[in-house]
Design a protein that fits this description.
The radius of gyration is 18 Å and the shape is globular. Strands 1-2-3-4-5-6-7-8 form an eight-stranded parallel β-barrel, surrounded by ten helices. By secondary structure, the protein is α/β, with parallel strands linked by helices. The chain has ten helices and eight strands. Bound molecules: 1,3-dihydroxyacetonephosphate.
Length: about 280
Amino acid sequence: MNPCNLNQLGIDRDTPWAVGHFNIHNQEFIRAVVKAAEKERSPAILAVGMMSIKYMGLEPLITSCQVISKETEVPVAIHLDHARDLEIVEQALDLGINSVMFDGSALSYEENVTKTTKVVQMAHERGATAEGEIGIVPHGTDQVKDSDMTDPARAVEFAERTGVDFLAVSLGSVHGMKSAEASLNQDLLKTLHQQIPVPLVLHGASGVVDDHIAAAVANGIRKINVNTGLKVVLKNDLTRCFRDSPDSDLLQDFEGGMEAITTEVASKMRLFGSSGKG
Ligand code: 13P
């Protein structure tokens, strides 16, 4: 059954748990995430983002995810993260990716609707799922403004007009934070969950404190995107290793780094409630 699309991971808008989306950048990351999924008996999403495509190439990444996910019994989906043009969506779908996210959050509302609708159509024609975004989750040092947060009426209309399977919303998180300090607007999330018929997605989860992640799952988030926090864990582990064991074999160093990622991913799966659901 692997790899599968997001609807085949066992989640829907009413399950009381969320699935983790973990950005992968090379085979080490892919193996480390799949190992955590096996340990936790949890479904998992291997996410391919634009920076990683620039770094490793689209086909090598998707192919590696396909080969490694076929080796495991727990449900694993391969998902394109933050596509901003239709060409990359088409290329990823042609390579057999199971799910695509179109990020039209920087476009006008109408342009976001038009392009996301097209992406949904392209994905569904190939049995893939599609995620859209409404509201703005800023990057780096940018602060979330009230006007960035998702407007419930707009989001309901957006979900209906585009037909997305999953919808990313803005609740107070920021992409790329290296430590967890942000909280989320849980009242807004409850309203969105009540009104929107599809599962909701939280981006920028590395920067959100654990209590707010757990509350977000209770209040309706069903997919949680983690990227920066895993890179931080790997970099810290390798830095310590290179400093303390300069003569060790490099592959041993990488093995230790993968183990550190696996431990971090497994703890996220427990926090999201997906352990034992795979
Ligand atoms: P972080 O890098 O902040 O964890 O965000 C990940 C993300 O939202 C990927 O889509």
